[in-house]
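Researcher: First entry.
Model:
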Amino acid sequence: MNASHQPDPRDRPARLTVGVVGAGRVGPALAASLQLAGHRPVAASGVSDTSVRRAAAMLPDVPLVPPAEVLDRADLVLLTVPDDALPGLVEGLAETGAVRPGQLLVHTSGRYGTKVLEPALRAGALPLALHPAMTFTGTAVDVQRLAGCSFGVTAPEELRLAAEALVIEMGGEPEWIAEENRPLYHAALALGANHLVTLVAESMDLLRDAGVEAPDRMLGPLLGAALDNALRSGDAALTGPVARGDAGTVAAHVAELRKHAPQTVAGYLAMARATADRALAHGLLKPELAEDLLGVLANGAQGANGAGGAEGGPR
């Protein structure tokens, strides 16, 4: 078919009306993605000025109304509030009678499965947990990033196909997560993504302190290659002084960090210990070199003070 004659998704009959409770970074992006698949956003709720502006930009002509009214208007409701706020929101909506029988109620929390939606289930709602494993900016680029994004999916068996279909319509890849594994699943993502931001930001700060004018340009190729290698090869991709057992170099690092950025020492030591354990377990770190290295990491301050005497040690 000629591209110029392809139908606009907005011209298709809408299969579901969609509402968003919590117009943060995630909700408008998911609603906009569902709109591209032929569904129709009809209402959103947001309190802050930022939420109001975001909803207006990503969901134009969609009215902002109280949460109860969002549920009154929509067949499919996205609950996209912070994790800690979700249980109270669900209980409140159920207690006030806002939940309708047969209504699809979808939350996007990584931490929770469907048990958190029990109050709404008792009111007749159909509970789904669809968590996009993606970081969001609150802009239209998020809709594009959903293409190929994995979603952690938890739902009753009878709704599993519906949950997976919604994810596929948003361009995502459904990955089934058992209810009891949701906290571990979420911890894994936080460890990889959230802590990565902290590590990169601290690394950029240290490079600036070392006189590097463009730390982002320096780190970009290095971190890109490291991430690619890690995803392809796992622990076999480990390199650097810890994996090599260069105790003297690590001691020097600790000494410099204590002098210039003491707030980073605890994180450096913790990550170095974890790296040493993995390198040792996978045969990358030689046992005869591990003892001195682990001593430096265990002693912390003593290892840093001894850096000057480690010149003749491993390099």
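Researcher: Second entry.
Model:
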Amino acid sequence: MLSAKSLFQEILDNDESFRLFCSIAAGGESQGGWENARIAALVPQSARELAPKITRHGADEDKHGRIFHALMNKRGLAPVEVPADTDYTMLLERHGIGLAHDRLKSEQPLTVRDIATYLAHSRVTEQRASEQMRLLRRHFADHPDIGRAVRMISEDEDRHLAYCHEELLRLASDGHGRAIQRTLRAYALAEIRVYRDVSLAVMAHMGGILGWSRARAATLAVAIYTVYAYERVAGWRRMVSLKMPEHRDALGGPATPAPEVV
């Protein structure tokens, strides 16, 4: 029977598919680390108290990238070039989600509105990351090779999501609520399209590596489109709601070190 667990187990068991999976994940995490580091450097004076939290957010993303590289190294695998159609972070930028890289490469300080844009971007994408890692944690938390890494990354993603909720609510109380809600809605609707396209692309590449039949590839494509249809109608709303998290100041303090996976 086709299930999320059996699908990922098949990817995990094959060196080439596992290498592609880890390369895609590592690339996205490393890109997120760079983006957060630049945002932390450009935070406006009026929001300097956020800089250490943004820095920790970026350090966590960098750590996740190193973890995925270490998982490959453990199996004697080298990373592969990430196919353009699977590059989630770059495709999000092309769809106008978040702060453009040209903006982050400049030395001009950001505005409070830019910070709200960054946090809205993170709110939407961290929702996706938290859900994906919870799924992996449910099925592979005790796996001898990847379990420890999965648990750590999942906990980090939950903290990132809590941080986004808290800081967006703070900005909303300062008078930015309507702009935040408009941005969240636009970003959520764009993200679900990008996620659909990336999911289709990843499954196509995996299918080529693992020799999936046309019937199996079609079944997976139908499943992806079904998720998209649900998210387009109602599921996007979970990405735009804001609720004060139980874990306050989730990114206060230094980042935790990466686990030993080799």
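Model: Note on the second entry: Residues 38 and 104 are 6 Å apart (CA to CA).
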